[in-house]
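Table S2 (text version). Query chain:
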Amino acid sequence: MEMRKEKAALSSQQGLNHSPFHTQEHMRRVPPKEPQVTCRSNTYPKGFYCSWHLQHPTYIPTDFEVYVQHNQRPLEVTRDEVHKNRCHVKFPELFSSFPYRVNVTAVNSLGRASIVFLLVVHYHLHRGLFGPTVKPDPPEKVVAKPVANNARRLEVTWNSPSTWPDVETFPLKYFLRYRPLIRDQWQHVELSDSISHTITDAYAGKEYIIQLAAKDMEIGTWSDWSVAVHSTPWMEEPKPITSTTESDIIPETTPGPPSAAPRVGEPTAACSTLLWSTHLLLACVLLSIM
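Corresponding structure-token output:
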């Protein structure tokens, strides 16, 4: 009897191990492959950041190890508090032509995989250290307002990205695009070292969508587009339409207390005046006879 129970338990366990669900879950758990790494500087000249991700899921917890070297010296790496797959690195030297070696390793219980990313920067004679990874964040606080008494203008203002630390020494240029919602084609304006622009060719009465991008004046790439804002040019207030003319207007009167109706037998004012005139005429005739 006990042997039968052991055989039954063993058969049950074997059936569980070979069940489709168990086999599928076991097959889905895989070791990591090389992560994809990108690095760019949005805080030049203070430093840069790198981010990474796996192209294929592993279905089990996977951690990442990050090491950065510059001129064969290890650099301090600070993990981002918000984005778990991002780290920040400070530039050790402002004027240096040595590449930065970024090593990112994905690790889980089934294995590990690494990739080395070389962040190559270039030395610019007039401005110092630059590279294709210099990419600012988008402009911030974009506002578009109509211009009073002008049906074809929109006033657009914005702020430089707050992450760009020294806009005075390393100024930015901006790329403005706008279009009415009724059309798909954008209009573009490139602006140098300015944080405002007046659109002068807007369609009257049409709602517009507006975005901006930022870029270092000399080297690097354009930022992503800013959050889109909407605005409509100024429109004249419609005048009220009246349905009557002045001659048709009946003046309003304030009702007063009703006048007392004359009593029967009581002479009116006109009658009293006539009676007094008759008596006066008769008196004049009598005096003339005498």
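Notes on Table S2: Helices lie at 2-17, 20-28, 269-289. Residues 269-289 form the longest helix (21 residues).
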